[in-house]
Amino acid sequence: MLSALIFDVDGTLAETEDLHRRAFNRAFAALGLTWRWDAALYADLLTVMGGKERLAHYIETRRPDEAAALHALAPEIHARKTAAYSDLVTEGGLPLRPGIGRLIGEARAAGIRLAVATTTSRPNVERLLAANFPPGAEPFDVIAAGDEADRKKPAPDVFLLALAGLGIPASEAVAFEDSAAGISSARAAGLPVLATRSRYTDSHRLDGAFSAVSDLGEPGQPHRHIAGLEWPGGVVDLAGLIRWHEALDDQGTAFQAMGTSR
Ligand SMILES: [Mg+2]
């Protein structure tokens, strides 16, 4: 029985990654640091999950001569980056990706519960939700975020935390991801994964997802199918997810992930 949907945030709910990059650059500028991260560099850095971890990786690999001083400054950089991210969302908004709002609405109407499993910090999640849902709407029953999990993706910890919060086994949920590390994390937690390709994960292989698509799609705005399960009309909807999940239950076996590629 399908009882919950669990979503990654960055790149899955919204194309947040460029705002994170610009927020880091604002923090660097505010602290008098001379470098800036361009889109190509940030795409490389995104292989490291979690903003704090990403910054530490950058310092280790690109600023080794200043590493001690920069590691000491890192908490301040990250705090300013989180504030700058909130400002950027307030200034420019941050729309949900195609089909996200629709699928969330379908799930809530059907009594399917919703959770978030993300390596990003909780304030960033709350800012995104505040920009897209009316006050008090609280679309997600459970939010597992940032440092609440011991290990970042691709470890399964944050998805296991979301499942624990929902109080259900992995066999009752489907995960939504946009990155290779995220798919690995969800799969390691025992979850089937539907993958949408995002701007910054354009080069990622989406192996391990039972279905890979460009986005969830909207009626009249079909998505592009990439691999695995196909969706009538180019739209991922709750009815289709429930049908797929029931077929999985009927087989009485663990799901067989499709080998997918670009
Ligand atoms: Mg992501």
Automatic annotation (TrEMBL):
Q: Which domain of life is it from?
A: Bacteria
Q: Which InterPro entries match?
A: CbbY-like, HAD-like_sf, HAD-SF_hydro_IA, HAD_sf, PGP-like_dom2
Q: Name one GO molecular function term.
A: hydrolase activity
The species this protein was found in: Methylobacterium phyllostachyos
Name of protein: Haloacid dehalogenase superfamily, subfamily IA, variant 3 with third motif having DD or ED
Pfam families tied to this protein: Hydrolase
